[in-house]
Amino acid sequence: MYSCIGLAFVLLLGCGVLQSDATVAEVLDEKNKTCIYAEMMVNFTVQYETSNSTPSTAEFVLPTNVTTAGSSCGNETVAPFLKISFGNGHYWSINFTHSNTSYHGDVFIFGYNVSDSTIFHNASQKGVIKVVANDTMPPVPMDHYYRCMSDNVFKQGNVTQTFWNVSIQAYIRDGNRSKDATVCSADTPTTVAPVTNITTVAPVTNVTTAAPTVTPKPTPTPKPDKETYKVFRGNETCLIITMGLQFNYSTTAQAPWEVKNIEPNVTTASGACGGNTSTIILNERDTVYLVFSFATRSSKTFYLKGVNVTTVVNGSAQQLGINNNLSYWEATLGSSYMCNKDQVFKVTDKLYINTYDLRVQPFNVTNGKYSTAEDCSSDKENYIVPIAVGVALAVLVIVVLVAYLIGRSQNRGAGYEQF
């Protein structure tokens, strides 16, 4: 009996928005018809030790060029199994379990080959290391496919797997993929139940009109320390960002706004750079993850496309906010973006990020240094105001001088007539 399945990719970190195209994997049966279909974007972050006993981090994505050798459609005694192999000995796999009415992912495995020196530079270990976990997604009805556009992060030990834009279906009947989706909870709009609580409270009008619902009023907090963070491609810097970083958030409609400064001395940076997308992941003590994703626009400019903030408390992750449809910090490719003014940027209604002395270049970094900076509009306005004042003063001086000369000329004419 055929159906579709969901798969649960547990927590979330970053919107990881490292790929411009999703990876597609299909498993065919003996009649050359699709029995398993998967489409997803995945970012892998692996911390490892080098041969000189220093820690290092490898960041790579699931490429679009993959194979499904070793996968199986399954039968009455063997469960369907999807194995996606890529690169030099790396793979990701999942097997499925079903009942009469539903099915779900059972166990998924990520195997990474630390002998791959193009990714794991000078690693002390060799061979393939496996990370095995139980899929925690509840059963999905038969003849549906599972869909989750939101970022989901699974962190186990020194490995973090970030999934987004996921669509997957197993037990496909006669190669006909389903058009009915079972959507993950993260993609489901918030229920309207809390609205009744708000409308029964007396100050409803104040809630809807008060400024904090648009821009939160930050709790008095010292400014965060400024730091420069870098992402490397091999031994070369491919992304560089300097800033003091703070975010304001509220976890529920009733919860007060909280302010968090990112502390540079306990924050590490990782990420990945591509031709059209680049991402940096800031990790503060393995408890706060901030993902900034950049994209290009018509090969002429770059901009901040996505922000994802996740906290981890007692091993449990909570997404504070995610938005992959932003358009901030735009500048010409080959240059850097700079904004000296303190800035507040909206990510969601419940999450704002504050930057101080910001400068960023996510593409075309040369010799690990910033290129010529393009100032933000706020900084440009700072120059426009004094220029306008100077022009106005110059015009005023000219008007006074002309009036003086005209008056003097008239006085001389009157004197001659009297004489």
Could you characterize what this model shows?
It is built from 3 helices and 25 strands. The N terminus is likely disordered. The termini are far apart. Strand 10 and strand 11 form a beta hairpin. The chain is mostly beta strands and 419 residues long. Strands 1, 2, 3, 9, 10, 11 and 12 form a 7-stranded mixed sheet that branches. Strands 13, 14, 15, 22, 23, 24 and 25 form a 7-stranded mixed sheet that branches.
Secondary structural class: mainly beta
Q: Give the overall form.
A: elongated
> Helical amount among residues, as a percent range?
10-25%
Question: What's the end-to-end separation, in Å?
Answer: 121 Å
Q: Which residues form runs of ≥5 with pLDDT under 50?
A: 1-20, 190-214, 379-384
Strand content is: over 45%
As a whole number of angstroms, the C-alpha radius of gyration is 28 Å
Can you summarize the main beta sheet? Answer: 7 strands, mixed
Give the assembly state of these chains: single chain
Q: Give the helix tally.
A: 3
* Average predicted local confidence, pLDDT: 80
- How are helices and strands ordered from N to C? EEEEEEEEEEEEHHEEEEEEEEEEEEEH
Number of extended strands: 25
